[in-house]
Amino acid sequence: MPRTRPARWVAAVPMAALALATIYPLVFTANVAMKTRREYVLDRFSPAGSPRWDNLAEAWAGAGMAGYFVNSFIVVACAVALLLLLGSMAGFALARLRFRGSSMIFLGCLAGLFVPFQVIMVPLTRVMADSGLIDTYPGLILAYVAQFLPFTVFLMTSHYRTIPAEIVDAARIDGNTVYGVYLRIMLPLGAPALLSVGILDALFCWNDVLIALLMMPSPENRTLMIGVNALRGQYSGDIPVFASGVLIAAVPVLMIYLFLQRQITDGITAGSTKG
Hints:
It is a multi-pass membrane protein. It is found in: Cell membrane. By secondary structure, this protein is mainly α. The protein has a single domain (70-273), classed as MetI-like fold. It is built from 14 helices and no strands. It has helices at residues 4-33, 37-42, 54-62, 65-96, 102-113, 117-130, 137-161, 165-173, 178-189, 191-207, 210-215, 224-234, 239-259, 261-269. The two termini are 33 Å apart. 31% of the residues are buried.
């Protein structure tokens, strides 16, 4: 037992330093958001004298963060719902249905994971523009689905392959059709994976900047992350208001990480083991 204590300290000290480096920017941003402009200019690192909630109100209402928040919520909710529907159906088909070309389709999904968005952003934007989908919710939702569907299909396929084939065979013998097996058997058994993948997809879509900037160029259609980026120029002389906008954008993500840590970890490690 005494020999293991030094080893624990060797691991604990770097982890503590990493945790401090991760938490400090959030604490610094929250502290700046509570200051007046004068307090920030005099000493940006000192604790705020008295909380200034007016900065949050100015960022939320005056800078239009409320509208950006609604835009992000609508787009992310619809994109994640469509990703989970298509990803779970494709994962079930690739994992448990025997048809010609299934292996090639799965390899195509794997190949899609290695294609950066910068490679396809010009043709994708051109297709969306020719289809009249630029500056519309459906355009951004479809762009997110196209970008993150290979990841969703891969994780759902990996999860469904861990479910014994005998369960599917027994359901077919009981008279269930393919759709019945999916709805009554595979979908309930895949609920934990769907939750984990849905959380990861929501984080990817919520934190995205590039795709949203290409699909939603109009100021009134901005998502929250684009709105925060615009605040940097609009409130360049009022850093506490800008910090308040950053804090508003970070709160939903922090809540997800705080309350759904286990599901996020399960989603990241899904497919790494079998059986």
